[in-house]
Amino acid sequence: MDKVKTGIIGVGNIGYAHAKSIFTGTAGDLRLAALCDIAPERVERCKAAFPKVPVFSDYRQMLTSAPLDAVIVAVPHRLHCDIALDVLKSGRHVLVEKPIDVTVTKAAELNAFANMRNLVFAIMFNQRTDPLFIRARELVKSGELGQLKRSVWIVTNWYRTQKYYDSADWRATWAGEGGGVLLNQAPHNLDLWQWICGMPQEITAYLDTAKYHNIEVEDDVSLFAKYENGATGTFLTSTGEYPGTNRLEISGTRGKLVLENGTLKSYALAQDEREVCFNSAESSPQIPTAYEEFTPENGGSAHNGILRNFADAILRGAPLIAPGVEGIRELTISNAAYLSAWKGNIPIKLPFDSREFDQMLAERAAKSKAKPAESRTSQSDGNYTARWKVNW
Questions:
Q1: Given its phi and psi angles, is residue 165 left (phi above 0), alpha (psi -120 to 50 degrees) or beta?
Q2: 91 beta partners
Q3: Contact 319/126 with Cβ under 8 angstroms?
Q4: What phi and psi values does residue 260 have, to the nearest 5 degrees?
Q5: Quick one: CA dihedral 244, 247, 248, 251, positive or negative?
Q6: pLDDT tens-place string over residues 286-303
């Protein structure tokens, strides 16, 4: 095999962009071999846009009829694991859009099956290709920042209008989407937060439902995290602020990192602050600090980087940038946040009781209000837009 024959299930905005990237040869060694969507308008659009590529309206038929090596799943969140599991059972490798699903329970089951079948399972955490986050992770993991003390991420520039929420029948509902800003816009940020700083031991959350929009789910979030070494973390996000802020600050005993406006600012102490604290003869010493700035020329290879890496993992055994198990970690944080808010903003220890979360989510989904049927005609021109990038 020199090319990975790839199918895509779900060709809305992001799925259509993946299809165009693969079709035009910009996604490395992936070859577009089949497409699937339940909307007749999208089926017809794909037939016109991608000649000779078979298009299906039933993904099961695609899996039994099309000669595929791998499949990309780009459907509404609640269907991710169910469809991905069918793909794995058919013997194909799979790449799932973020988030991996709505519940940790399903995410864990999917990962377990992929490991059992020895198939490549990746998730579209494309922000991991950004040089800023790669550099920040290197500095933290290498110990150059010393022991972590605190992280604060304010990412409130995910602004969305009511029209956005009304654009699809599944959006911003417990039954359709399974959550709000934590499930839709923030997964990339939550993933990067744990990728750089590690997983917390405890989450406390305050989630405001319909604070800025007429929706069922949260559009404003404040999270507080505690870590094993005593460090703390704060994560603030919203789709109702304009202009918003995107600033990540990470403090350690040997310095500080600030990521903002596309630049990483690094402050490196000449001596560990803990040593200074207990050994200095001064009450308020000035610790010598080296300052550096890192501003990459671009935001990395983004979606195409993950697609190329997916192909490399299948063809050459390359390590995945974002293996499926990372989807569990990100989802663990958001599930715990919901559980905390639903139980009166109490601290939730990780790992938590996923069965309790599943039950409480099901109760909300059962009361979910129906929305007008979506017009499923894709408006995407097939290009990856700024909406899917880090907004500095």
A1: alpha
A2: none
A3: no
A4: -160, 145
A5: negative
A6: 999 999 999 999 889 999
Please give the single-letter amino acid code of residue 172.
A
Q: If you average pLDDT over every residue of the chain, what do you get?
A: 95
* Over residues 10-15, mean pLDDT: 94
Q: What is the DSSP string of 309-353?
A: HHHHHHHH-PPPSSBTHHHHHHHHHHHHHHHHHHTTS--EESS--
pLDDT of amino acid 108: 96
How many residues in total does the chain contain?
A: 392
CB < 8 Å & 24+ apart, contacts of 273-276: 273/146, 274/146, 274/147
Joined together, the tokens standing for residue 130 give: 């950004």
The predicted-structure confidence for 221-277, as pLDDT tens digits, reads as follows 999 999 999 999 999 999 999 999 999 999 999 999 999 999 999 999 999 999 999
Instruction: Identify residue 21 by its one-letter amino acid code.
Output: S
CA-to-CA distance for 113 and 132, rounded, in angstroms? Answer: 34
What phi, psi does 6 have (nearest 5°)? -120, 135
